Amino acid sequence: MSRNEPLAASSTEEIVADRLRAVEAENGVKETLQIEWRSAPKSLSVITMPLNLLSYNPDTHRIKAQRDYDSGRDQSLSTDPWSAEAQQYLDYLLSALPNDPSKIDPAFEKLRDDLESYGQKEPGIITPSGILINGNSRCAALRKGNATQMRVAVLPSDWSWTDVSAVELELQMRKDFRRDYSFVNTLLALDEAISEVGAETAMKSFRMQKTAFNRSIWILQTLRDLADRSKQDDGSSLNLRDFENDQGKLEELYRTFSATAKNDAEAADILRESRLLGLLLDKSKTDIRLVTEKFVPDYLDKLLAGTTFDSQPAAVGQQIPGLGRGLPSEPPVLQKVKGLVDQIAQLRTELLSENDAVNASAQRKYGEINGLVESALDAAGKSARLKKTQQAAIDRINDAADALENAVLEVADAKSKQALDEVSLDEAVTNLRRSISIFAGSVLRMTTMPKESAEWLAAMRALKDD
């Protein structure tokens, strides 16, 4: 984290101190803001400060995943975060769309318009030297709306960067201001909190249940793994922000993976990799649901034959140093799917290349594998619809059997309580006989049943004529 302060920190501190003294000297009700400060509530005095004396916080979690959008300016931000160039870059990122920083975020525009129309409702928070802890986006929006002043609460003079991080996260988790962190930046903020205060405290600070906490950590690890696997020789790779729009898909993947892993860890690993393949190809949640651990061997494998994506998994596991023997290798299906995911992740990186030849080759290969996966999804979809049709009738019959078993208990219960309406029961039984007779006749006409079942159905069909 950035440990220094702006060059004009001393003069800003003097102005802040003067305004705090002026507020304290005023009669009447004073505006304050209550925060959690070192595990206890604390009220901060609110003052009005000129916008040109405020500095964006270079460590704000709001734009953590977007910082390397422009590597040159990111370097400037790392080496001299208080320079005009670095602060202008922060101003740019605070208004940018999280998953595509080349565009302005509609949520930011809405915030800017709201501030112009109705003014500032909640104060920001600054250090005594004017560094914004909470309210970075609002400051950027006020500046773009040509405002000159901002209401801010002031941290105590003994603040530290650890306090800054804790306050920012605590306020974000309250969700009491307009623009939430993006999906990926929330994951990064959680990860940073874990490294600073531990998992239990971080989970409490983020107001997360254990399940949501574990899911978030698993998703972040999965995304970092994908970024590593996409890396090129020149060091370029996918960025975590490339997955900003995939929150729903990733959360569903975690649920499905966890449920499968309870019974079959190997199948769960194959399922995870297979669905990551669909994620990298930007398939819809509906399409990705068609992908099971059998998707590649049953539907995709034969389509890959003879293409550049048809690779044979290694047969030997990793060697154990000093023992001269190997660990058991991963199942061939898992190795194959992992290889496909690696290839597609690297293609995604190459699609971002400024080298026209590399980009053109990547587009061709990406289009090829995308078409093959689409064909496999079509086949999987047809199979799923067929299985659903095949199973529908069986499920209905099983439901009817369960309902009859429950009816036995209900009749016995009503009888024991002397609440059984035997006239209505007789009418219901008559309807049941008619339905069973119709069912038996239809099944006998349309299917070939084993002798015992056929004889029973024939007897049931005769009930209609009794």
TrEMBL record:
Task: Write out the coiled-coil annotation as residue ranges.
Answer: 387-417
- Keywords, ordered alphabetically: Coiled coil
Organism domain of life = Bacteria
What is the protein's name according to its record?
Answer: Transcriptional regulator
Q: Which organism is it from?
A: Conyzicola nivalis
